[in-house]
Design brief:
Helix content is 30%, strand content 27%.
């Protein structure tokens, strides 16, 4: 869920650097779920705009409604973490309108 000021900040961050690809990392963690995804901010914004809302559900990410990378869960020194190697695969493959 994004507040209006968060959305403006993320858009400004997306524009800050020529090579900034505007990745968002989001994790869902509770007793039943432990997953994380990476996706491009512009893809998420276009999708949310089409839906008329400011959030994306876990189910939508799982169903591939927006282009996203499922980040595998790993252990780092006995602690829970996520493998971020896949984020380099988030590319400009979809046209944003």
């Amino acid at each position: 869920m994004l507040r209006a000021d968060q959305l403006i900040g993320l858009i400004n961050f997306e524009k800050a650097l020529d090579r900034n690809i505007g990745l968002v990392l989001v994790s869902f963690l509770n007793e039943a779920v432990d997953v994380a995804y990476a996706f491009r901010l512009v893809h998420a914004m276009a999708y949310m705009n089409q839906k008329g809302r400011r959030y994306i559900t876990l189910e939508e990410l799982q169903q591939g409604k927006i282009e996203a990378i499922n980040l595998p869960r790993i252990e780092i020194n006995g602690e829970r973490g996520y493998d971020l190697k896949g984020v380099r695969d988030c590319t400009y493959t979809k046209v944003i309108t």
